[in-house]
Amino acid sequence: MSRKILVVGAGQSGLQLALGLQSHGYEVTLMSNRTADEIRSGRVMSTQCMFHTSLQHERDLQLNFWETQAPKIEGLGVSVAAPGSHDPGPTQRAIDWVGKLDGIAQSVDQRVKMAGWMETFAQRGGQLVIHGAAVSDLDYFARTYDLVLVSAGKGELVSMFGRDASRSPYTEPQRALAVAYVHGLGPRPEHPDFEAVRCNIVPGVGELFVMPTLTTSGRADILFWEGVPGGPVDAFKGVKDPSEHLALTLELMEKFLPWEYARATKVELTDANGTLAGRYAPTVRNPIGRLPSGGAVLGVADVVVANDPITGQGSNSASKCAAAYLSSIVEHGDKPFDEEWMQSTFDRYWDTAQHVTKWTNTMLQAPPEHVLNLLGAAGQLQPAADRFANGFNDPADFENFFYEPAKTEAYLASLTQ
Ligand SMILES: Cc1cc2nc3c(=O)[nH]c(=O)nc-3n(C[C@H](O)[C@H](O)[C@H](O)COP(=O)(O)OP(=O)(O)OC[C@H]3O[C@@H](n4cnc5c(N)ncnc54)[C@H](O)[C@@H]3O)c2cc1C
């Protein structure tokens, strides 16, 4: 008899797991609080730029349905505004380079991907339940399933999972987030022949990420501000009107990042739901959730490790978590999914996730001198630019050249000998 698994939450991790388990012959029920159509016609949820390893997990499951349509992102660039240069007068760039990615990155609007994957899951015979699950529902269902996986993102169900204070240095949101999906953005004149994610850092103020995507109306670009709380970019809270949101996005670009604004003068929103604003505190949780009647459920991806999107890792981590959990489930065969197995399944994921959390939490701080030296040197040393860019695919590599001044110096010296 095939094993019965309940997956609660149909985002990157939940759908990838549900479809993966389904292809291995498990009897999967997927609970989603929205239908595919509601997701497709709803608000944007992320910027969801994914790098090689996580895209490969999707390819391995033959879920890369949009790979040929989505823009192929070949580079990742970093620009740093010269501190204070915007006050008064136009901002200067202290740093500006682009690194080449070893494998392409892609962003497929989650409205497109999750709606499409959910329909595929149902077409393949999966049981889809449209219901916003409460803890009491899970308490009831847990008894009839061999395993309950909670992949409901940062929503209310996280209350079942205790916060791991030792792995969560922040108790407050570290950035105010503001996203706008646009058509009509021009190329960066420095590399008109290839697509790149552009990270623009304004020290003390925040960051603007610009990235190509595939959305419901085809190719588009995303303008994504991360504002330091209380600073000039933390200005989107009361803005309800999407065109006002875009106007504010552009106004801040003109003030702080005129080189990005220069290619954005003709943009318009992709659709009335193409904007998003919010904030959350980065949080790592205990992986095992407690049900009122004593049963245990396993948390997946953002439920257990939610990092700030400053490093664009959440969807990547969700894909990596889904892939790791899928292997753990399949390898476990017919044995019971007890708490010991749950803990070791999470620990296996944490082996890679801990590097993402460490790097992301570091990037939320003002960069120390050795990091500014590294970013500056990457403008002259292409291998350093390429290595930093490829760190977005494998953040574990930052251990080797990023955190400790001595390692950064040794790395830079090795490039100039
Ligand atoms: C502004 C922004 C920009 C980002 N940019 C990037 C980026 O460039 N690259 C990157 O890799 N990551 C990025 N991320 C992070 C990424 O989007 C998330 O980390 C990722 O989507 C997490 O996947 P998940 O499967 O854990 O949860 P989610 O994708 O959040 O999916 C959870 C699903 O569960 C549903 N749900 C919630 N509660 C219930 C319930 N009670 N019952 C049933 N269903 C429920 C939700 O509606 C949702 O569909 C960004 C995030 C934000 C906010």
TrEMBL record:
<dbReference type="InterPro" id="IPR041654">
    <property type="entry name" value="StyA_sbd"/>
</dbReference>
<dbReference type="InterPro" id="IPR036188">
    <property type="entry name" value="FAD/NAD-bd_sf"/>
</dbReference>
<protein>
    <submittedName>
        <fullName>FAD-binding oxidoreductase</fullName>
    </submittedName>
</protein>
<dbReference type="Pfam" id="PF17885">
    <property type="entry name" value="Smoa_sbd"/>
</dbReference>
<feature type="domain" description="Styrene monooxygenase StyA putative substrate binding">
    <location>
        <begin position="153"/>
        <end position="263"/>
    </location>
</feature>
